[in-house]
Design a protein that fits this description.
By secondary structure, this protein is of the alpha/beta class. Helix content is 40%, strand content 22%. The longest helix has 25 residues. It is globular and about 75 Å long.
Length: 453
Amino acid sequence: MIVMKFGGSSVADGERIRRMGEIVRTHLSRNPVLVLSAIGDTTDHLLEAAGSALRDRSVSIHQIESLHLKTMNELGLGPAVREAVHPLFVELRSLLTGISLIRELTGRTRDYLVSFGERLSVRIAAAYFESAGIRARPVDAWDAGFLSDANYTFAELLPETWERIPRALGPVIQAGVLPVVTGFIAKDETGNITTLGRGGSDLSATVIAAACGAEEVQVWKDVDGILTADPRLVRDARPVESVTYEEAAELAYFGAQVLHPRAMQPCMKTGTPVLVRNSFNPAAPGTRIGTKPEKKTGPVQAITSRQNVTLVDIVSTRMVGQSGFLGKVFTCFADHDISVDMMATSEVSVSLTLDAVHDLAGLQRDLSKIAGVEIKTGKAIVTIIGDVHRSSEILQRAFGVCSRLGIPVQMVSQGASKVNISFIVDDIQAGEVVKGLHKNYFEEPEEDGGGEK
């Protein structure tokens, strides 16, 4: 069997669902399980409807209902399907009415609210498959075995899920029926609906694949796989043929919007390959993520960047030879519930990067008690994912590019995974650096000895 996951853009309307159906039909001999996101912008529409209910007690599902009815019309689905999804619209209206009366949207209620997107999506898609001659069944995640904790809006799946999924989906697959499963959602042990947070639909797909021993997971998106750089910055960015799980996780963590790192964890445990494919261009081979890349064509796999970063420089001569100094530093961060992205240290200083969303006044006050502190905003992390055995060459060429551009590097860090080298530049310089690096690593012929161009 295989697992095929399609995101919101791949099921945005009737035409996209038809295209998805054509892709699925070519894989029917491999016993696929489908995992779907909500149709188009449904999740945003649901949250907007809740906002209206909270602000002015206005209860309307017109936008959501009309989008799904239009999609059903585009797919030529008859009254029976409308009857099947009608109870969900009634349930949604009742929920919004409750929100408007109580004037409160808790995490539990929010998860219940946004679940309607995936629940509607799988019912419409399964009905379309049936109309196209493919035996299919919509399956809500909890009926597929997904059991989570009660950490609403960012729930974690419980270990029992791994045993429950094969028991639930195995008989459906063996009967020759296509399971169409809701991504992103689960239920906790008391029966309340939960959501799995960022990357949740991808996580749903990879958990099913790992638990069932699938041959592979296909994650269908709107790009030709993992690219060598952001195509919005680099016009000549190209798909990467294959990367390791570690390389893909580092790319995602440092800005590549392809697969969230937590979504890859189940497949990392079992060695299940993940293929990132483009539903708008199914002929493209995509990118294969696995235990080891199929081949290396150069020192660098890809370049990414993340902007709006804060740089914190902590300097203290008292740090020299002093045990416990770093412990005190990180206690300050823990006390303010602030996580660190990357770090570089020396005998007398520590440099750290943070998301710029934090209020740092309290942190700066506490750190100032043990060291000198300078906080710099408007920074960007540029990350190079490459071959650890060629890190000296990668660094030489990267600094050469920055030198020619007249852009100073403000901090350098090599991750513990050894597949990434990251450095800090000003926000406004990040795009220029990424373009320069991409040209150097991917667009110019490599000289003998891998030297600078």
